[in-house]
Amino acid sequence: MILSREPTDGPYGLRLRESASTGRLSAEKELELFLQDRREHVETLIQPALEGGEIVILDRYYFSTMAYQGERGFDPAEIRRVNEEFAPRPDLLLLLDLSLDTALQRIGVRDGEGNEFERRESLQRCRDIFHSIEDDFLHVVNAERKVEEIQAGIMAAVEPLLVSSRPQGSP
Fold this sequence. Notes:
The chain is mainly α. It has helices spanning 11-22, 27-51, 62-71, 76-83, 100-111, 120-132, 147-165, and strands at 2-5, 56-59, 93-97, 138-142. Helix 1 packs across helix 2 and helix 3 (62-71) packs across helix 6. 15% of the residues are buried.
């Protein structure tokens, strides 16, 4: 099993991560870096792992780019189309959903203050974009609940895929 995240720790991803604290890049530059980072991620980690029979779990993927760059004025459907030209579609997309009030409260507990990506209006637009995704691999998990209940919701979505990916005859 391979665990990874986006933006990555590669050169493009690091520039994106730095911008969260040093000042957000132009919308065009940010989208360009996300695409470069993802392309490199797919080529060097995701695709080789999948071809090797590995399960790949990502914290964020092109759906987050659709939401956050869509919030900045780009067409989410076009972002998805461009990404799906080179990035594998997932078997499962977990959307951990919670109210804006809860999200802002958790951000405040985490670090006292949201960054430019975490303002109420921006988060609402991102949430709306996430909720506009319609696909058979999307599974929404109510993240308002207790951690144990959230984990149970995630496992209910993941376990059928794990069972179907096992070789026949294995436990």
